[in-house]
Amino acid sequence: MKAVRKSLPVFLLVAVVLLLSGCSNTAPITSNSPGIWDHFFVYPFSWLIQGAANFTDGNYGLAIIIMTLLIRTILLPLMMKQMKSGAAMRGLQPQIDKLKKKYSNSNQDPKQAQKMQMEMMELYKTSGVNPMAGCLPALVQMPILMAFYFAIRRMPEIADHTFMWFNLGHADPFYILPLLAAATTFFQTMLSTKMTPAMGANNMKIFYYMMPIMIFMAGMNLPSALPLYWVVGGVFSLVQTYILNRVYHAPLASSATTK
Q1: Which one, 100, 181, 216, 233, has least CB within 10 Å?
Q2: Which N-terminal stretch is annotated as signal sequence (predicted)?
């Protein structure tokens, strides 16, 4: 269950974006677009993309890549906090397992369940760990990434631009971008949870296979600008997850070995 809780915000972000892709407002975004979401969230990102395109001589493909990397870099401290919280929770896992073993009948006995919950809260308090701390950074990222997503989707300049072998406003005819987006999503989720024993469960495998499939199916039909954004963001997250896992997991593993 810990693996699901860790990646649930990512899954929800993908699900919400894919759902809104089919029913959201697709009118061109401008400074006069009405509504708080469009005016204060989506439009500023379209303005930044336009600025990046001007910097690259009108290359909107490069502008999307630059802005994706910039936004992911700005959000990096939030991801670091999330990974640090996850490492702290992993450090407490042996003690949590002991409590679960001690109160093995907690599912049938409400009194045992209450005692176990109280002891867990005391364990978190004495260890200085907040079990919800890992969720907050992910939730903060969601509106930022979604606003950037819809800015890309609703800029007419992007829809008419050709980049590499594809037109940013049309689906990739060779399905290369959807495949790359699905692959980066798959490897990112595998890497982010490979240290979690719960990942071995069959229901966990189904959960993590679903996200790449959803990304691939959406990428087959959406304008190529969006799978391009997913690929760049996915590669960045893959490298980020690998490095942060080494930074936060290695000290944990070494300390566990010495005990």
Answers
A1: 100
A2: 1-26
Say if residue 52's pLDDT is above 50: yes
Q: State the DSSP H helix or E strand holding residue 190, giving kind and residue range, or none if neither.
A: helix 176-193
Spatial separation of the C-alpha atoms in residues 178 and 222, rounded to whole Å: 9
- pTM assigned to the model: 0.70
pLDDT score of 256? 40
Q: Give the 3-state secondary structure of residue 166.
A: strand
Contact 148, 71 (CB under 8 A): yes
**Alpha-carbon gap, residue 172 to 181, rounded angstroms:** 12
**Residue 114 to residue 107: CA distance in whole angstroms:** 10
The residue among 66, 63, 65, 67 whose CA lies nearest residue 54 is 63
Which two tokens mark 245?
């896992």
**H helix intervals, the chain:** 2-23, 36-37, 43-55, 60-74, 76-102, 110-127, 135-153, 156-159, 176-193, 202-221, 225-258
What angle (nearest 5°) sits at the alpha carbon of residue 138, between those of residues 212 and 179? 15
190: Cα separation from own chain's centroid: 13
